[in-house]
Fold this sequence. Notes:
The protein is mainly alpha-helical. It has one domain (10-169). The protein is built from six helices and no strands. It has helices at residues 13-31, 45-58, 72-98, 104-127, 136-170, 174-177. The relative contact order is 0.13. Keywords: Endoplasmic reticulum, Membrane, Transmembrane, Transmembrane helix.
Amino acid sequence: MTRTTHVPLWKRPIDSMYFTFFALHLIASLCVDIQGLVPAEYVPTVLQRVLQDYLVKSRDPLVPNAWQPRYAWFRMSLLSEFVLQVPAFVVGLYVFWNNDPRGYPLLIAYGAIACFTTLQCIAMVTMGEERVHLAPENLSFILQNYIPFMLFPGVIMLDMLARTTRRMHATTPAHAKTQ
């Protein structure tokens, strides 16, 4: 049997935290991040205002420039968010709700992609040419928004890797352990 004993989500605080992160990130991706990929006429006005408020506070150079040739890497990051990460959010919600380890390998891949993609964004606004155009309060606001979306996936990746390794070790036949 691949599933573990069912322990309610509320009794698994780390999984509850991951579940909440995936739920919030799914909402943010579908309501805000998607605006970097679709024409404005397809985005409800209220969601356009949320993005505009973020851009006013942050002066984030990446989101409004996603279609500029210099930022093609960022556009591909947004595309990967919808092709790879959004499905991983849905799988992650299922995995943590049901305490089902079958999704751990996908969550390891998600964590690696999301952590390092967001790290690229952080590097761009802290060490790239864009840094000189950001006031300290803008940079602080950007980092408050980017850093959690780098750290959580990194922690999830490491945790799922550790859980998977433990499960694999626990299911290794005794004769293979002695060789």
